[in-house]
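Entry:
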Amino acid sequence: MALHPITDSASYLARHLGPDTAEEQVMLGALGYGSLAELVDAALPTDIRLTEPLPRHAPLSETEAQARLREYASRNTVLRSFYGQGFSDTVTPPVIRRGVLEAPGWYTAYTPYQPEISQGRLEALLNFQTMVSELTGLPVANASLLDEASATAEAVGLMSRAQRKGRRVLLDARLHPQVLAVAAERARAIDLEVAVEDLSGPLVGEDLCGVVIAYPGTEGDIADPRPVIEAVHARGGLATVVTDPLSLLLLESPGEMGADIAVGSSQRFGVPLFYGGPHAAYMAVSDALKRQIPGRLVGVSVDAEGAPAYRLALQTREQHIRRERATSNICTAQALLAVTAGMYAVYHGPEGLRAIAERVHGLACDFAAAVRAAGGTVLHDAFFDTVAVRVEAARPIVGTLAEAGYLVRAVDGTTVGVSFGESAEEGDVEKLAAVFGASLTAGTRCIPASVARQTPTLTHPVFSTLHSETQMMRYLRTLSDRDLALDRTMIPLGSCTMKLNPTAGLETITWPEFADMHPFAPDDQAAGWLALIAELEGWLAELTGYAKVSVQPNAGSQGELAGLLAIRRYHVANGDMDRDICLVPASAHGTNAASATLAHLRVVVVGTAGDGSIDMDDLDAKLAEHGPQVAAIMITYPSTHGVFEDTVREVCDRVHAVGGQVYIDGANLNALTGLALLGRIGGDVSHLNLHKTFTIPHGGGGPGVGPVCVAEHLVPFLPADPTSLDGATPAAVGTGVPVSATRHGSAGVLQISWAYIAMMGTDGLTRASAAAILSANYVAHRLGEAFPVLYTGRNGLVAHECILDLRDLTRQTGVTATDVAKRLIDFGFHAPTLSFPVAGTLMVEPTESEDLAELDRFIEAMLTIRAEIDEISGGDIAYEDSVLHHAPFTAWSVSRDDWDHAFTREQAAWPVPGLRRTKYFPPVRRLNEAYGDRHLVCACPPPEAFDLSEENQ
């Protein structure tokens, strides 16, 4: 295989790859290989390798890539957005835009599974949860979901699980169209009966698990939800309310009205329209449902010294551990956007938010009054920000307003919806009213007293103390300083690739021509967006060997679900109604089984052979037993065990032979890009993680994008446009169903992946894969004697990651993989993936972006820790007295007067000389994980909880 040398030291490829040519040779020499090509040839099975070169795309420079993106942006026509339908005009405070959305300390952070080095982002997410809880009047809120439509679907699933006897769900016909479409099809996928109904009359029918109520409705109308809530409770069902958080500054909270669940989108709390996403959805639940809530949940616990400390509670990697029994398949949510929305609430506070809500509402009332004064028909008397006007023909008015610079909604042929956002002004009211033949008229409040908010909200001091820009700037810096993100250190997580994110792509996401585009703007206004998305989808199809790609899934979990729904619907269209078994190898990604369950497939596990590969004998046995019922197998390639299995083609052939489809999880494509094609080695469908292989940042747990790629026969089953379905009528057999609220999902971050591919070029992407393989094998080789590598493939090599096995050391010394993970904090490292996919192990993925010095720094840390373990095994110190058992150490813990440990302060905090000038101290000691689950607190604690002075202990 030819790997082209790096000839331009200023190219993005040279900037992206950590090791330079000289370092690369040092690493290859340690492994005994003369070139990258030789190493790759030794590692990859020959029968999966590309037999013909990919279409060659020459790389662009960073300047050229931005110029191309400027050209795409210039093709978009961004009107002032008065469209609504779940997406509102908002203003991102510059201090938050610069301090969160565009700040590497926030966008390069990983999901806060390791709480000691995540206290900053955990506090920020707890602010978000507290905001949602107080606005909705429900005691427990999660740390974000993906979008409003899929959050509603999650709520339906939650009601179904909680009310096991009911198999029927009612959806309010007043919900936004995209919410109806996604929620209805997701409900049908799990075999629920769906009815879309006008809920103004009495509830009809039995066997209800729950009802979903719009508050306000898609036309802006406000109806008191209490009669419906009381009626469904009387029938033994649950009530979900879908609501706009800004409206809840003026409307009584769903919890106060008796709702069990509230969901919605926090987009209008300072998050740009982004042509549809990413936006942080939310869910809040009653106390009775708190242990079934899907997604991430930040809770308050204590550390080893009794100090308050934050952690993920209950749901930590729940979908990985519980697999098919998980409450949700969501792994990546929208943490970065939740932080943005939460900080928006902190910055404005309750008075500021109420002022924004009152102003928006007042402008809407003025517009309605003007239309009525001119003899026009306003459809609803009670509304918050959206006014529906009856006209003879909607389209001409929408067109006239577009010419005047305004984007409004044609709700139907004779109804125009005008939705007011944060930047709207009186001058806009005047111009909008003029098109309806009206002039500016002062209106009166349009919220009935029966639903006007009476309860206080956002009462925690965090929402009342940080309103100057100086305070906010320092607060954001304080929180980010408590964290370890990629801007500070290597994050060596297996299966969660943390590599360089291209600034040249990142800084374009907030360009107004991209960021301010409404997702339901006509295609002729979004020509640049559509061209960029089409080019990106085309590139991804080339790089995977599939016929077509959809970027609609807004997380890897949703890509998995979209792929499995495509397979399921394909079988149904072919009359194979009984194919409902999904084979999931024990070595597969943990979300796979949860996704299969959400697609209403029964999971059958295929065992693992001694070398970590799929057990072919067990596969044969499962195929023999279930053949006619097998819908699919889900495999991960390279495997989650970090090897290139040489039986992958054979696995695909055997499943195809019984009529099943092959789903290849593409989360690890960064080890294959340019070297092999998933669609050519036997895959029928794959999802990719743009937040892994294609450099969209993890953002502390999101955003993610999980495109789904399919072979030709599955193209009709790709995700449908959610606005093309009405929810009441099931999607036609032979078609796909939507999985996200908008046609292109989280479009607003696609420029990052576009820029990465454009700047790397075909040859650069191939070289990056080879460099990732080199880095992983170098680390495995250097650490293999101290920490055995659990699984290897051809020629004793690994793929892009390796599993370090600590189980024997644990048996000998008591030192666990958790101890090593916590001790690494003292060296300034985020831990590798802990105890997944094999308990008692650490999975390491260094990526191609880390230079030799950083790899060696990690290796030094691990070898130093091994020496500390040897002190225990040699009898020099008891495990209970060891530095490993007590790690990590805060600055206070090693600075205060009392020190009663058998080891020195220097060994605790500065175990290697390189830390003397560059030292990270975690803000808390080791977390008490069990305490946090026993005492579940998921909102901001009072300030006095952090008073650790002696008189308060």
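The chain is about 35% helix and 10% strand.
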